Amino acid sequence: MNESFEDGDSSIITTNNSNDFDDTHNTDIDQTTWRESDMIDDDDLSSGEDDAMSDDSSDTLTGYELNRDEWIILDCVQEVLNSFFEATKLVSGKQYSTIGLGYFTVNNLKEYIEERDGNHEVDQLKRLLLRQLINYFDNDADQYDFLKRHAFFDPIGFGILDRADRTKFEREIRNLDKERIESVVDSDLSSRHLQATAKKASTSNLLNGFLSSVG
């Protein structure tokens, strides 16, 4: 590269910087080549590590892979628990849940898991669930009776009560109503008796006062 400029004596001075440019250019090429070579080595090393990790991950995932029988069991679990999933949405949804609705749900779940369809895995799951349902509801007689009593006053719950329970609760209601009426009558009679006694005492006091004044 030639450059020309004038000095103070107006003479022309010409310089040649081509060698300097070539040296700098060659140095840049050498550094770039070195960096690329180093990056290639790093890529090769990283690729080898990734392959090793990929093999380990593949072996690990293979160990977790389900076989055909295990997939069948999962399908059975989903089939059986789907009714419980729907029951949960029913009693805990946006609409107000009642005790009668709860009894209706529990009763229908119990009927469902009491059914047998010949599928060994499904039937076994139902037996396990039925055991727990009986433990938490039927075996707690007070709680189960409480559910049925309140279900009697709920159209949804009343519809699934058997005849024996309906007759039992109707009889209890009649007896309670009879006791209430008798209690009201007794209270009214007692009140009238007290009023009559007080009136009689007042008359006696007036009579005694008069007799004392003339006696």
From TrEMBL:
Residues 1-61 are annotated as: Disordered. Residues 39-58 have a biased composition (Acidic residues). Residues 22-38 have a biased composition (Basic and acidic residues). This is Uncharacterized protein. It comes from Rotaria socialis.
